[in-house]
Design goal:
Blueprint: H1 8-20, H2 24-27, E1 33-38, E2 47-50, E3 68-73, H3 74-79, H4 84-102, H5 107-113
Parallel strand pairs: 1-3
Antiparallel strand pairs: 2-3
Length: 116
């Protein structure tokens, strides 16, 4: 059974906690990344990375670009879990999964690492 959606400010607090829990060496690699919260995604995604991964920036002549964006979707995440503790965990896992795409890690490798 899914939990009732929590209010946006409470969800954003969980996202902030997830960001704060990341190791400093990972945080140092998150240059030019914005993290957003939206209510829903038409396809029910939990999160989405949009941008140019660090591993591809040289090939595209990257420079003076808008920030890459990681979006976490509040309603699907709340609908995916049965407790606030599970939500806290899933927010962190989803954030790490999407930030891994920023670092150039694809879904196959994330599966191998247990993050997908």
């Amino acid at each position: 059974m899914a939990i009732r959606p929590i209010p946006v400010p409470a969800f954003e607090s969980l996202v902030d906690d997830a960001i704060d829990s990341l190791p400093e060496d990972i945080l140092a690699m998150l240059d030019n990344v914005a993290i957003h919260v939206q209510d829903d995604h038409p396809e029910g995604l939990l999160g989405l990375y949009e941008g140019t991964p660090l591993t591809e920036r040289e090939a595209y002549g990257y420079g003076m670009e808008l920030p890459d964006v990681v979006t976490l979707y509040r309603l699907p995440l709340c609908g995916f879990v049965a407790s606030i503790d599970e939500l806290r965990h899933e927010v962190r896992v989803t954030l790490i999964h999407e930030l891994a795409h920023h670092l150039g890690i694809d879904d196959d490798r994330l599966h191998e690492l247990g993050w997908a």
